[in-house]
């Protein structure tokens, strides 16, 4: 795993589709590889395969290798969309790939669900910066949907036991981006 040199090609970021189903295990491993160090929830490859084939994932590829990933989900009958699992291989961070992945997820979820509010739960300063530049605002966790399935997503985070023992739902800061005026939403 070498860092990207000036002469090397930049990884290409694009939305996923059914032909990318074979990347699900790599995506799961990529998340797993950082899940002890960062507040990101592990995800089974079967779950990620569903996101990839449903065109609800963004991929960063260096040749055939998956070096960055993220996915989105719809909640509350499509009134909310969450962006999750954002990860870039450590040696390729800081060159804008995370931002590209985030914008790809944003474009895909906005196109499919234009009236949805977009949510992000994060402790990452990089994700916070990206969200702020996209227009997200910080909200209380209570502003997010109550759906237990949504909060079950935190079960695979390294902090879950401590956070739940403190009576809290999540260790992250919640951020929300409302849909454009006239589109309704939350
Ligand atoms: C979060 C992550 C995907 C970002 O990927 P990246 O390719 O390094 O991100 P980028 O280079 O696109 O930088 C993203 C933003 O962070 C900003 N940034 C970089 N370092 C920063 C720092 N230390 N503090 C605050 N902002 C910072 C950049 O300026 C950029 O802001 P902009 O979008 O307004 O220009 C990557 O750090 C990662 O894989 N982290 C581990 C997993 C994780 O924590 N995921 C988030 C789960 S919510």
Verbal overview:
There is one protein chain. With 186 residues, this protein is of the alpha+beta class. The protein has a single domain, classed as Aminopeptidase. Helix content is 31%, strand content 24%. α1 packs across α2 and α3 packs across α4. The longest helix is centred in the middle third of the chain and has 16 residues. The mean pLDDT is 92. Coenzyme A (COA) binds next to β4, α3 and α4.
List of distinct ligands in this structure: coenzyme A
Largest sheet: 7 strands, mixed
Under the CATH scheme, the architecture is 3-Layer(aba) Sandwich
- Broad structural category: alpha+beta
CATH class division: Alpha Beta
Structure annotation, total helices: 6
Average pLDDT: 92
Count of distinct structural domains: 1
Short description:
This protein is α+β, with helices and mostly antiparallel strands. The chain has a single domain, classed as Gcn5-related N-acetyltransferase (GNAT) (Aminopeptidase), CATH 3.40.630.30. The chain has helices spanning 24-34, 45-53, 97-112, 125-134, 148-152, 160-165, and strands at residues 12-15, 57-62, 65-75, 80-88, 117-122, 137-139, 173-177.
What keyword list fits this structure?
alpha+beta, Aminopeptidase, seven-stranded mixed β-sheet, 6 helices, 7 strands, binds coenzyme A
